[in-house]
User: Fold Phosphonate metabolism transcriptional regulator PhnF from Neorhizobium phenanthreniclasticum.
Amino acid sequence: MIEMSEAPAIRSKWGQWQTVEEQISRDIASGTLVPGARLPTEIEIMHRFSVGRHTVRRAIAELASAGKVRVEQGRGTFVEEQSVIRYNIARRTRFSKNLKEQGRVPSGQPVEELEIPAPPIVAAALRIPESDPVYMIVRRGFADDVPITVSRAYHPVSRFPNMHIRRHQGVSVTEIYRDFGIPDYLRHRTTIFTRLPITEEARLLAQSQEQPVLVVQKVDVDMQGCPIGYSETVWAGERIQFAIDYDEEPGNVDAAAGAQKE
Assistant:
């Protein structure tokens, strides 16, 4: 049986299952529990953390939902054999291409499509008045059926009429741009930072709300430098690793790309 590292003191009765989940997540991330390893039994975890059966089952359920462990009836709970995704960021970053090059199967799921007045940050990025209508398109991105992103993309209604309908139908942004006379486009600016997810983001990413996410804000421009899209993509931090690639245009540091567009 593989031993987990010593558990920290339980912070409070309310936070018991989160503490158990957090410690096991750390053991997986650190290699104490390697891919394919069987976790200690339910009773052993109860004794180690001084918690009840319900607490352990809730923690294991959350870990399974996040894709970190799998429960096999009659055999036990095992660490999933998943590697961190290396996501390359460059001037022409494409979600599907990135994942396919690593042997992953990319997919997407519509969450919400709305037409709204451009919020200040979106209006500034797209260089349009705040009153101008934009489509806000919210989607989930998957790698091998594991959720890795929640993206909110904004596009001017005047330039891309009915874009939200086509995105709901699964048409890629690249294809939609092409249909509107934009055969190629670049990333103008990328901002990356970390924070804790809000409740809905944690639910959509199938992770704990106490696990940090990576947030990527970026602006797309056409080949004339006119902004055509702004997005904020929330990535499951423990499942992704970014690599910045400037080989396409050496020396152009400000032109790094980011986030999901296919």
